[in-house]
Design goal:
With 233 residues, the protein is of the alpha/beta class. The protein is built from 9 helices and 7 strands. The protein is elongated.
Length: 233
């Protein structure tokens, strides 16, 4: 029995699908997939303002962050299409909303995948400047809470480390979308400028190429169906 998931068949499928998009788009996909990372990921806890929530996603996509983990406790994470500008079609949004308090389960899941939980909040005696966060110690899941309340007690207790953004004014905090942009700019540059193997594996890159080519096609399911017919499957 032929397995459609056979690597050789999947490669052949990709090449078949890719012929229906422009060379410029194929080149763009190849360039961008090389810049994607899961070494650094962002965790958003109970964000409720659609504009800010969407702006953060757009920022993540621009910095090559492939996965964003979204914890929904009291607030449903709403995306504003005018703000995200289509960025979410190129990313993976992992939502945690199965219970009243989803934060512990989300953080445990991330830890099981080897992530250090790094919370963005001042923690006297333990916090460090975002510039000084040691990326050599392992993968980072950067957690951000709401602008009003910040991170919850669960994050505070389960976090492995704490970071802060230096501030020199009277205002107590940055807008969350601004905070995300500054943190990701700092950490992304530091990551890409070092020797850490931050890129996706070859298998992960192939899966993204396949997903993105399908995103570009108008009716990918019909094109794929035709391929399998030609293969006699």
């Amino acid at each position: 029995m032929v397995n459609k998931q056979d690597p050789a068949l999947q490669t052949k499928l990709y090449e078949y699908l890719a012929q229906f998009i422009t060379e410029n788009k194929r080149t763009k996909i190849e360039e961008i997939v090389q810049q994607r990372t899961r070494y650094l990921t962002l965790v958003l806890e109970d964000i409720y303002q659609p504009h800010n929530a969407s702006a953060v996603l757009r920022t993540c996509e621009c910095f090559g962050i492939q996965d964003v983990h979204i914890i929904e406790n009291r607030n449903k994470y709403t995306v504003n299409p005018d703000v995200v500008m289509g960025s979410t079609k190129w990313m993976n949004l992992i939502k945690y909303n199965g219970s009243e308090n989803n934060t512990p389960a989300a953080l445990r899941a991330l830890k099981s995948k080897g992530y250090r939980i790094v919370a963005t909040t001042p923690h006297p005696g333990k916090d460090c400047d975002i510039l000084n966060l040691d990326l050599e110690k392992g993968k980072v899941a950067l957690v951000m809470g709401t602008e009003i309340d910040g991170i919850t007690q669960d994050v505070f207790e389960m976090a492995d480390e704490f970071v802060k953004i230096p501030m020199y004014g009277f205002t107590e905090s940055f807008n969350i979308s601004v905070s995300a942009a500054m943190c990701l700019h700092t950490l992304s540059n530091k990551l890409r400028g070092g020797s850490i193997p931050w890129q996706l594996s070859q298998e992960e890159q192939f899966c993204l190429r396949m997903e993105w080519v399908k995103n570009v096609l108008t009716k990918p399911e019909l094109v794929e169906e035709e391929f399998w017919k030609q293969e006699g499957l």
